[in-house]
Amino acid sequence: MVIYMYKIMFVDDDPLVIKRLKNILDWGSLGFEVTGWAKDGKEALTHMKEQSPHVVITDINMPNMNGLQFVEKAKLVCPHTQYILLTINDSFGCAQQALNMGVYHYLLKPVEKDKLKALIKELLSFFQTSEEQSQYVYTLENKAGLSEKMIRDKYLNWLVSGCQPLSEEQIAENFSFYKIPIQADKFGMISIHINNLDIQSTARQHFTALIDTIINCVENALCYYKNYAVFSDPAYRINILLGYNEQDSSVIPNGEVICQNLKDSLLFELNLPVTLFYSRRYTGYQNIYRCYYETKYLQKYTQGIMDMGIISYESFMSYTLPISIDFDKMRSTVLKYLRNNAFDELKTYVTDAVCGLPINVPSLEYCNIISIDFIMTGIMFMQENKTPLRDIFHKYYDPINEISELTTPAERAAFVINFYEIMLDYNRTHKISSGKSLVQKTMELIEQNTANPSLSVKWLAAQLYLNENYLSRQFHRETGNFLIKYIQEQKLQKAKYFLEQGYSNLQTVAQMSGFSDPLYFSKCFKKRYGIAPSKYICN
Questions:
Q1: In the prediction, which pLDDT does 135 show?
Q2: Are 74 and 26 in contact (CB under 8 A)?
Q3: Whole-model pTM?
Q4: Alpha helices (H) in 272-386, listed in sequence order
Q5: Where is the HTH araC/xylS-type domain (predicted)?
């Protein structure tokens, strides 16, 4: 029985299309109520103000106000409404313009019932996730009386699990909603382990009090910094999420300096010996979970590791492994097999890597590191395909913890292989195209890093663990555009936007658009738009 009905509205100048949309699905059984329809964007805006629909399906080509113009204005009226665009044009430029405006998806006319139904179900899942978060906050605040900090802890633990893929914009909005005081383009993680602490024999209330005391000490030690958040996880480790801004590197020093400060403060204030582990830095909110998973390499502690006191990801790897492991190559190979649905090759590769123990390498540390990295790579693949972990497995599934409980290489290899097999079966069943997902991820990386002067085909390929030529071919196959030209076009569009917003310093505009040389920027801008940027400002 459906308790709550979502509102849906249709916009199209063709009454036959409106009629088909009203009858194509049993909207009531899906949890939707058709609250209205309109023949053009102007009429639709009036309905929007009165009804505030959750979903709007609109045509692009309409009189008076086209679909893209309508969405742009409608988002000011109803910012949380999700839009699906209908078009007869399958051009890449049209689709990209729509997606850049925040449109949820677009469909080709005539609308296919199965595709529309699948899209509506995706939206339902999205709404339910958002509602779960809102309801969760309401319950915590009004029924359980928990503090804002505890709510933030819950959200951050949910985020770092990697269970639910969200866009950069969604995560940034959630940070604002949950009052997490971080605005950054790069992130890192510090994990604090309390030495010689027996969790099993320590009373829960005493342990909780100790954690609170440690967090207070940590926050006092970091009082001169900003762009950080402290939270504890289910394993009773204190974690510090650090935000770094490229243009303001003085705000937070490097991880080792902060770790030394924290180590000294905890020892001096609480007489508490700790071991601190800090991750590498990753770009973008979507990669926060990768920072956290790097700290999980330390789930199996040894006395030698404890004696190090402060450990970076790189120093941990060099200490625990007497041989060098090319993780980039390993991830690239696994992702290649996953993207190509090559399960037999993947199975052989995982078995050889986990069970083929090199000589003079400690089996426990090697298996732990390799198997966890395989799981991380699988989660990266799911994030790339916008697939929540809980959709494939169950809500509280934690593959890192489960695989860490296994003791033999054969058990761990079998776990990883089964993990991958379930993912690939899910993709086949739901007809998820890895090629399209890869291109979409590439576009997201470009959009998020337009100002980065290192942005290039080579840089993108490194982020995605791909060969440059393969990425370029895949991008061209899916979009019809050359990747290198697409990058340039996005930079120039960003520059044009800044000029239209009133920025007059060409050097600043060039830097904000990813051009290190203002003269080269001016040359490219004039070639693209037929006018020099200096004259474009005047016009």
A1: 59
A2: no
A3: 0.59
A4: 288-295, 303-308, 313-320, 327-339, 343-355, 363-384
A5: 440-539
- Hey, which bits of 159-199 come out as E strands? 186-194
DSSP at 342? -
Instruction: List the domain range (segments joined by +) for residue 10.
Output: 6-129
What's the rounded Cα separation, in Å, for the pair 337 and 417? 12
User: Do residues 200 and 250 make contact, with C-beta atoms less than 8 angstroms apart?
Assistant: no
DSSP-assigned states of every residue in 1-51: ---S-EEEEEE-S-HHHHHHHHHSS-HHHHTEEEEEEESSHHHHHHHHHHH
Q: Are residues 283 and 425 in the same domain?
A: no
Q: Collect all residues with Cβ–Cβ distance below 8 Å to 535 and sequence separation of at least 6.
A: none
DSSP per residue, 204-252: HHHHHHHHHHHHHHHHHHTTT--SEEEEE-TTS-EEEEEEE-TT-TTSS
Give residue 75's identity as a one-letter amino acid code: K
Counting the structural domains of the chain, the total is 4
Distance (Å) of CA 38 to CA 43, 89, 537: 6, 21, 39
User: Residue 356 has what DSSP assignment?
Assistant: S
C-beta atoms surrounding 465 within 10 Å: 18
Burial 330-369 (b: 16+ CB within 10 A, else e): bbbbbbbbbbeeeeeebbebbbebbeeeeeeeeeebbbbb
* pLDDT for the residue numbered 1: 38
On whether both 73 and 194 belong to a single domain, the answer is no
Using alpha carbons only, give the angle 525, 526, 529 rounded to the nearest 5 degrees.
80
Measure Cα distances from 510 to 4, 159, 259, 498 in Å: 49, 34, 37, 10
In a domain, 140, yes or no: no
Question: At residue 183, what is the residue type?
Answer: Q
**Residues 251, 152 within the same domain:** yes
Is there a domain that residue 225 lies in? yes
Does one domain contain both 220 and 299?
yes
Question: For the chain, how far is it from start to end, CA to CA, in angstroms?
Answer: 59
Sheet holding 55-59, edge to edge: 32-38, 6-11, 55-59, 82-87, 105-108
Neighbours of 515 (CB within 10 A): 25
Indicate the residue type of 91: S
Q: Measure the CA–CA gap between 161 and 51, rounded to whole angstroms.
A: 36
User: With bands split at pLDDT 50, 70 and 90, how would you rate the model's confidence at 96?
Assistant: low
Residues 191 and 251 grouped into a single domain: yes
Residue 349 in tokens: 């590769």
136 domain residue, yes or no: no
* Same domain as 170, residue 273: yes
**Domain holding 190: CATH number?**
3.30.70.270
Single-letter code of the amino acid located at 329:
K
Q: Which of 231, 86, 69, 264 is nearest to 160 (CA)?
A: 231
> Within this chain, do residues 416 and 446 fall inside the same structural domain, yes or no?
no
- What's residue 100's pLDDT? 64
Which is more confidently placed, 187 or 283? 187
Q: Is residue 401 domain-resident?
A: yes
| Identity of the residue numbered 464 | L
Q: What is the mean pLDDT of residues 274-295?
A: 86
